[in-house]
Amino acid sequence: MSERWMGIKELPSHEMPRERLRDKGAQALSDTELLAILLRVGVKGQDVLELSQRLLRDYGGWAGLQRADHSELAGRHGLGPAKASTLVATLEIGRRLVLLNHGERFQIKSPVDVVQLMQLEMAHLDQEHLRVIALDTKNRVQKILTVYIGSLNSAAIRVGEVFKEALRLNACAIIIVHNHPSGDPTPSPEDVLVTRQICDAGAMLDVEVLDHLVIGKGRYVSLKERGLGFPAKR
Q1: How many helices (H) and strands (E) does the chain have?
Q2: Is there a contact between 172 and 134 (Cβ–Cβ < 8 Å)?
Q3: What distance in Å separates the CA atoms of residue 159 and residue 156, rounded to the nearest whole number?
Q4: The pTM is what?
Q5: Using an 8 Å Cβ cutoff, are 216 and 123 in contact?
Q6: Which of these ranges, 26-30, 170-174, 183-187, has the smallest mean pLDDT?
């Protein structure tokens, strides 16, 4: 991050982060300024803007801060338990707002819609998560479920668990989504095998499997679009 700041004490009063937010709106503030408002004060030898800039640099921005747990943040010089709690709570509020705005009754029309719904959170997970999106007759989201955490392995995944909640909800279709922590969304042979098994089970249970998406960092792959693991169209 190339951003450089004068010390906060050197800034004119109207250029202080809170005053800029009041006068110009939150959208006008940089990430550093927004974080500085949350943290409120710095530490000896490092004002709050410098502290905020360092944290964003060290964690690679908001996504890295969101991955960090409370104890890790609380142990950082300049934070402590109170500031860490404020930061974790704020990031969680942001995550819930995204799900609220895009999740409940959100209609899936294409793989891009799935990516908009899931990528913000899943692209930065440290382990593989397999999630199921249960859909109604109009492909609107009924529920999003995490059914597996760990390396995707057909021997470990119980296909029945993939459909359990979808059947309870009377879902007409499901979409499978999992992430690759490496950031590379290229499907593995295991991904293709798991997809085939899930599609076979869906055909027997009369629940259509619309797609299986692999989420990476800034990229994704639709196995349906690539014809991997899905039955060929007749």
Answers
A1: 10, 5
A2: no
A3: 9
A4: 0.61
A5: yes
A6: 26-30
CA distance 159 to 180: 20
Round the average pLDDT of the chain to a whole number and report it.
85
Range list of β-strands (E), 52-207: 129-135, 141-149, 173-179
Task: Give every CB contact of residue 56 below 8 A, 6+ residues apart in sequence.
Answer: 1, 31, 32, 35, 62, 65
Q: Which helix (H) or strand (E) holds 205?
A: helix 189-205
Predicted local distance difference test score (pLDDT) of residue 5: 45
Q: Taking 50 as the threshold, does the pLDDT of residue 2 lie above it?
A: no
Burial class of residue 26, CB neighbours in 10 A (0-12, 13-18, 19+): exposed
For residue 47 the two structure tokens come to 């004002």
- Pairing of the two strands 129-135 and 141-149: antiparallel
Question: What CATH number does domain 8-100 carry, 1.10.10, 1.20.58, 2.40.128, 1.10.150?
Answer: 1.10.150
Enter the tokens of residue 191.
Answer: 């991904």
Q: How many residues does the chain have?
A: 234
- Per-domain boundaries in the chain: 8-100, 107-226
As given in the structure block, the two tokens for residue 185 are: 């969304």
Cα separation, 203 vs 13, in Å, equals 66
Evaluate whether the domain defined by 107-226 bears CATH number 3.40.50.720: no
